[in-house]
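Consortium newsletter contribution from the modelling node. Members have asked for a concrete example of what our holo predictions look like. Here is one, prepared for the zinc ion complex that several groups have been discussing at recent meetings.
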Amino acid sequence: MGKKQKRGSKQSIVPHREAFMRMNFLFQASLAVLSANPSHPQLSRFYVHTMKNVGKRLVLRMDPGMKRMLCKGCDSLLVPGVTATHRVRAHRETHVVVKCLTCGNVKRFPTRPDYQLWSDNPANVAQPQTTGEPPPTPATSGQTTATLDHSRAQTPTHPSTSKSPPTTTVDKNSATDP
Ligand SMILES: [Zn+2]
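And here is the predicted structure:
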């Protein structure tokens, strides 16, 4: 399921750092190319396509703000007024409709004041592990307690594993991906 990380390795080093740097460069390059020549977005789309391929190959997560700027249909950068239209709609619940002007693909984002992305919640973000203990995560469900008993049965002398089994965190992470 998940990737195994070495506990003893240095935690400050980001895994796949070069790939993240390349994705960042490709994103900025596509934005620069599009702003220099908005009437010909082909090169910008190629850069975004390459960036998504790099992320897919190594299963890297993009920042949600970055991901919301990309069209799923044609890999265009969704710049308001240039390659996309942004409209506020009040049907059912007030939301923003982003429409790609190249392929017509539509994205909808809620505008609730209390709306929070799953990754913006600090409880869901893993803290850097300096003491070797797992990060505290508020996981309270029936499945969690089942895993809890299992981990207790395996390692009875480790008290810090009772709060956060890493398998449930990975499952939550993949299930709530926008
Ligand atoms: Zn599109």
